[in-house]
Design goal:
With about 110 residues, this protein is mainly alpha-helical. The protein is about 75% helix and about 0% strand. The N and C termini lie far apart (about 50 Å).
Length: about 110
């Protein structure tokens, strides 16, 4: 039962989280549970670790910003909680298989068609 109460506020939590600074303890504190319970809940219900969930959330948010805004890659990285655009680009490449600029270029091509 604790896990369900914990998982429902995740999008709200992720929206304000700084991807570089959030720890498992911060995530556990946000739901008033222990670190081990937070980790168990993530694994049980989301099949990922809390840190990976947050990073994926931040990358997905950055994809939206790259599609729907004219923000620079650096500005998108900062908006999504990354203090380093180089780390953001590396993480983005890991999750999507392309750089943020390639991703934006692909979407701009589809908008023209």
């Amino acid at each position: 039962m604790i896990c369900l109460a914990f998982i429902f506020p995740l999008p709200y939590f992720g929206r304000f989280a700084n991807a570089d600074d959030v720890s498992l303890q911060d995530i556990a504190n946000s739901a008033s549970i222990s670190r081990s319970e937070a980790s168990r809940c993530f694994q049980s219900y989301l099949h990922t670790s809390p840190v990976n969930y947050l990073l994926k959330y931040c990358v997905e948010r950055s994809m939206q910003l790259l599609r729907d805004s004219n923000m620079t890659v650096e500005a998108v990285a900062l908006e999504c909680g990354f203090s380093s655009s180089a780390y953001f680009c590396k993480l983005f490449m890991t999750h999507t298989g392309m750089t943020p600029k390639q991703y934006r270029s692909t979407w701009q091509t589809y908008d023209i068609i």
